[in-house]
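Quick illustration for those who missed Monday's session on complexes.
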Amino acid sequence: MPEQRLSGVGVTPLSGVGTVVWYAPDAELDEPPAPESVDADAERERFEAARDEAREEIRAERERTAERVGEAEAEVFDAHIQFLEDPQITEGVETAIDEGLSAEHAVTRTFDRFVEQFAEMEGRMAERADDLRDVRDRLVRVLVGGDRVDLSALPEGSVVLAERLTPSDTAQLDPERVAGFATVTGGRTSHAAIFARSLALPAVVGIGDALNDVADGADVVVDGTEGTLVVDPDDETREAAAGGEDVEIRADPVATADGTPIEVAANVGTEADVGPAADRGADGIGLYRTEFLFLDRTSPPDEDEQYTAYREALEAFPEGRVVVRTLDIGGDKPVGYLDLPDEENPFLGERGIRRSLGPDADLFETQLRALLRAAGDDAGGDLSVMLPLVTTVEEVREAREVLESVAADLDAEGEEYALPEFGVMIETPAVAFLAADLVEYVEFFSIGTNDLAQYVMAAERGNDRVADLGDYRQPAVLRAIRMTVEATEGTDVWVGMCGEMAGDPDLTELLVGLGLDELSMSAVTVPQVKKAVTETTLADARDLAERALAASTKDQVKDVLTETTQ
Ligand code: PEP
Ligand code: MG
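Prediction with magnesium ion bound:
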């Protein structure tokens, strides 16, 4: 049988070969009983008991996940407990019972309503729908006494296929036994994708309905680099996948073949990502997304908690640089306890630095205090502070003034501190245009192509319908990058990139040629990018960049890129 390739989104640059095991976690429900036959008091008691049991299970899974995957990943289970105890959900279930539904049907109806509401939202809010499904399925299973497929005891060489994998499902997968997984739904930032990266599992998500036609027991290759699932792979495909990762992990900094040093750093979201970043050979941290310290909890982390987190990151890279981005919330990153405004278009609303200089001024000050104190510690590497979603020179000036006043306060209090390097993310067309005016206020720029591409192209990130437009290989995006770099020429300001584009090894030569000094990415692709840096020369890279910048369509850019890789 000829091999068949299904495309999705590859979330780890790893491949695995194995046999399909379909996983369908939903417990089967019988038809609802006649309302008059339902004893509401008894059903309420069953619901209460099921909640107690589910809570115990979640706590145990949280502990296991913290041990096996990481504390940050385990925090998702705190959100599950919150859903389990949410007064609105509980009231919904109890009302449904009073209307004559059995506990399991009442749970299903109520949770489905909330799932629907969350699924209609954007970005990370939509992913909350997966958490709700997870809690719903757990409660129903406890209520109907169903057995759960034990994902931790699958036969060796299994490739798990599923509609979706919830955090509890993914955390159970044993990388020693499971060769990979693929799902119908999900994107790069879904929980399943994040867990796959932490567990270094080959994974492709978002394949769509075509995945449902793959039979249980079929032979497949999960190719996380290409983002494909190959069904009935031929010998060549199978061997290429089984060869595993053939790239060396280099702990030392790298340079192009003719000696231009390029810093290759990792993006991290929490303390748990820091160790794996160092293990993959990252020179430092090019983007610490501090909003993850603020998510999935009920109040913000205080100054000492933040200080400890930043210090740990610095200690992990004693010779390197750690770029910490100040709180970037709003847009697709809501924080429940902060009472964010209900905006028609949050990506164009109050997010990033706009909140830090506005309603979250107190949080900004606390964060800067923690950062300046961490910068004053000489146990670790060098700290840099970076502002998200800047659009004006005034914002940069004002943020610098806050930083200086925080330093003055610490001074007056006799606290140890140091002034960190100060920089700005280039994520909007406005700052790309203003880059030349900003160089006098900053020591560095870091280009965030995830947002820059969405704002340059007016194509929302995460919206599949406009994914082609929002591609970072669009000529307009390349020119915005070049414009930024050009503004720094002849100055001491360095330019990095911390959007997903930086982690694409096929683009490393282009980015070196565009003049970037640093590339920062998910830790998992650090070795591939380091290798790509050493395989080019500055002259070749510049020549490639020049040809790419001359292209006026994305297809032409792609042609320029493939000509050189052939
Ligand atoms: C970006 O926009 O490219 C970026 C790195 O920031 P985030 O993905 O966290 O918005
Ligand atoms: Mg961004």
